[in-house]
Amino acid sequence: MKAKAVQRLICACLLAGTALPADAQTALRLGDAGYFESPGVNVLVFSNWYDGLFADSKISGVEIIQQGERTATNGDVRLSATPGQWDPIGRMVKRDVDPKTGTIEVLLEYPDYNFQYRIRAERRGGSVILSVLLDRPLPEALVGKAGFNLEFIPSAYFHKSLMADGKSGSFPLYPSSDMVAGGARNAASGRDIGPGAEPLPFAAGKTLVLAPEDPARRVTITSTAGELGLFDGRDQAQNGWFVVRSAIPAGKTGKVIEWTLTPNSVPGWVRAPVIGHSQLGYAPEQKKLAVIELDPAMTTAPATARLLRVSETGAITSVLSGATKPWGRYLRYTYRTFDFSGVQQPGTYLLEYGGRRTATFRIASDLYDTAWHPSLDVYMPVAMDHMLVNEAYRVWHSDSHRDDARQAPVNHEHIDLYAQGPTTDTKFKPGEHIPGLNIGGWLDAGDFDIRTQTQYAVIRTLVGIWEDYRPTRDQTLVDQKLRHVEIHVPDGKPDMLQQIEHGTLYLTSMYDAVGHAVHGVVEPDVAQYTHLGDAASKTDGLIYDPDLAYGERRDGKSGTPDDRWVFTTKASALNYGSAAALAASSRALRGYNDALADKALGLARRVWAEEHSHAPDTYSHGNTTGGWLPGEEFAAAVELLVTTGDKQYADRVAALWPEIATRFGQYAQTAVQALSRMPAGYSVEVEKAARAWKAAQKPDNPYGVPVTTGGWAGNGAVIQTGITDYVLHKAFPAVTDGSLAYRALDFLHGTHPGSDISFVSGVGTVSKEVAYGSNRADFSFIAGGVVPGVLILKPDFPENSEHWPFFWGENEYVINMGPSYIELVQAGIALGKEKR
Q: Of 833, 779, 759, which Cα lies nearest the Cα of 276?
């Protein structure tokens, strides 16, 4: 149909509240990548599957990418109208793609219910026909529970309307649907009391039209049998989505549900170019490379770009106009690069390409000098557990988790990858309070556990920063006796040392309490785990007494079992990792807190001796029981060697080296630490491994650093690559010039796929302002926090949502990323001084 005729038809259909006929839509095709596509629209059918960390990470089932944004996901048979993150989900058995018929069919099952089903998707003009097929009737246990759901991201539909069989409605900005009470309370509800509660649909009909007034977000769904209900999942949890659902009828086989799904394709839509650049800016001497990301449909992309300078009067002048260099295709986009390294004059600049201009950025020799301040001044203090953290008029959280911690039950697999083995490996009985663990440590991420493996990694990073760069910045008051932190208040002590002290206090408390490293302390149930807001309000701060009634308080104790659990099964990897951090902290704390330094070193020596007196304890579960055992022992040996100079540790470093060399990239920094304490032959071997590592740094993308493709985005790998390159440069200048540190900084600050936003909140002109921190329900951020970054939705869609904070794999702050970013920035500062 001609464009004007299509527009007239759209208007007529909107007025009537009906769907557009198929011939008004651009026809979908089943492309080589295995999903349905037309200009501006993709419909994925189980291209992605969960990685097992959590069931519901919003990256599976039937998904819609519409005009450049993923707006729908989790199209699948679910057992609730608004399932939560821990609710059961079907297991994929097989997926078949038939390019000849344009059909995708997936076989799935719920093994616990002996229930198998198929989902078939087939193109029909501009629509996809979605069918749920049963060979046997729905099991009795699932009648009234099972239905086909498709979830729509709320932020794409805020301020928009809807129609249900022609009846008008609107999407709520804040959840306000009717609820029906009854049944058991969902363990993940976040509620401690009261019955279960389920939402009722806020719209229903045979045909739903979402956002009819917005061509970029309009989606029409028609059910051939049965009604469509539209639910608000946020009534159950803040991270819930809008859910379209059809219940599966009882006693039926064959095609029990059929939808016609029509996501609108805007005629002629082409995604605007993304001018990937550093939102922070560039040091004069560094390479300056903008990476321009283009929709392949942009067949007449401009060949040139301009660098513009902003004067103090606001005048904008062109200082460089040059050709962009074609790079080729990566994922779903094509790329060009624009090199403006020749411009070194300090000032304020912006880039222009294809009629689009970036935000301003700086070229300055002092560019990186303050970039790390938000991470140390704000993010790290906010993450301090067992402290009241105040910032002027705002209390980030009060003195949290004063009631730590209860012994975890044996033979128990818990949430967030914690587990307890067949014994406690302590003198405490399951459920018994273990005193002394309510001190020090950092909250792990957007959640509130203390994960020991992360704690010791943070301490070692902070010690490395202190020893290599000596940042004496003091902008935070920390009073351990009062358990009080004041942000933006100097107290005469280096903040770096105060953070090292805080982490070390937690590590030493483990050994005081149970005699060995614990896995960590974590919430006792999912309801508490999902808590948002002040960490101190998660628990009552009083030690649990089972002799008291629930809610009763007496003599400083409580009958409410809200105390966090501590997981204590012995793991040699955790002991070695903790010993490494304790040995390192003793060096940094010497002269600042000598008593703690002595205690830390004594514990590190004791742990080393004890671990070498018996076969290793190899208990392992998830990511909470330590890393690779040889690597953790190697770290302990190196840190003890650097601290003491004792030959026994040097001998062990040499013995472990052949294994470590096979994973050199992961342990390069630790290996380099030992160079000055080891024989010359060790240096030769490390340099050989360094050359091999450098030769392997050939990423298949235009950004110059690795872009990982797992369920957790890869900024951690980017930071580690930059730090490793600079560390190897310092040790072996002939091997590398260390410039990957700059490339890593550029990536974090905006030169990455999908967008040009800085992934460090509060750093750069346009930075991450909607993130998965403790304040995520407020669609806000914590300055200095670093998010995971670009998540690659298979097969080819790079995503980092600035509109929806609850994508934890893209947006969740994790405590070790802050110090690692500080270290990378310090490397950038040092590299700049070296090159001037």
A: 759
